[in-house]
Amino acid sequence: MTTLPSGFARARRWLRDHPLAFDATLAFCVLIAMICGSFADPGKGGHGPTFGTRTPEAFSVLLMVLAASALVLRRRHSMAALAVTGGLTATEYIFMDPPAPVVMSTVIALYTVASRTDRPTTWRVGLLTMGILTMAAMVFGSTPWYSQENLGVFAWTGMASAAGDAVRSRRAFVDAIRERAERAERTREEEARRRVAEERLRIARDLHDVVAHHIALVNVQAGVAAHVMDKRPDQAKEALAHVRDASRSALNELRVTVGLLRQSGDPEAPTEPAPGLAVLDELVDTFRNAGLPVEVAGADRDPGLPAAVDLAAYRVIQEALTNVRKHAGAGARAEVSVVRVGTTAEITVLDNGRGSAAGRPGAESTPDGGGHGLLGMRERVTALGGALTAGPRYGGGFRVHAILPLEARTGEPEQPGPAAATGERR
What we know:
Blueprint: H1 4-17, H2 19-38, E1 40-41, E2 50-51, H3 58-71, H4 78-95, H5 103-116, H6 119-140, H7 148-228, H8 233-259, H9 280-289, E3 294-299, H10 307-327, E4 334-341, E5 344-351, H11 373-383, E6 387-392, E7 398-405, H12 418-421
Parallel strand pairs: 3-4
Antiparallel strand pairs: 1-2, 4-5, 5-7, 6-7
Helix pairs in contact: 2-3, 3-4, 3-5, 4-5, 4-6, 5-6, 5-7, 6-7, 7-8, 7-10, 7-11, 10-11
């Protein structure tokens, strides 16, 4: 069974979806109110209006019908509807005494104009309408100019202008709030997508650093073991032991990295700290065991470094040494330096190798040689507000130099510049 509130709400929705039908209904209601009001005598004796003592003239009924008909088009042609109803009201005041309440249609039309235009237009049109109708009522009416009927015309037209302007202001305010809410929602979605992309890029860099470093060591040691397996089994066993250690380290670091993707309630979430300069000796030892002589010329391992800077410095050294091992060639040596200079930490990795054609400046990249080593290092450094340069050294070799601010900031990764791309290693 349909309740009264639900039926009323359904009717409101239907009228809102059909504005012309709503305006026609409103015009009909205004016509009924004007006709009913035309039977009232204002009462010249000061005792108030009385009903049933007079009947409206045919001319007044015609004016009321025309004024109500003009309200049907009040939305599409609001100014025209106001002009028609205002003219009919002034005509009623000029030729009929006492006048019929045709002014009710003008009040509705003036409210519509005020609610659909700007404030300056409302002031101009409202004052003009108020002045014309009030003057017509005062000059052509038989009642004194200060009578309540004349003052009522002034008050009702003024209230119509004020009410329409208030409704227009409220609609603009609600629309502005809705627009801000939608814009904020879009901004939150864009920020969430940006953070997801940044996190994916960070995890990809970590995975690349871990896998590239350890797989390179495993490849070298496995090659050594295969080469000396028959003639020097002891050395082959030692190489295989290094393979086991490198693979175990790779698995541990992968477990730490992938553990960041776990949900908070997942079991066995890793609690190992991220690697940093505190374990630089262990990192260097893995390369020495793989046959790459590495000298640590200077290492500032102040534990006060921010965690992000400490991890970035470690990853830069790891990737740079991996590139030396892969591209510098036989007999190459590397030198690592970590120095604090003011409010920055400078990381330098040098080598004296000649390298293969694929890994040297100006050479064509091989189909399977494409990598992201230098690009990942540069993105990691610039994300903290630092700078990284990499290129060949005068006289041979390669140099990687990173400057990291001790007060790290989070920012958008910058695109590598032309100078950084020169001599890029994979």
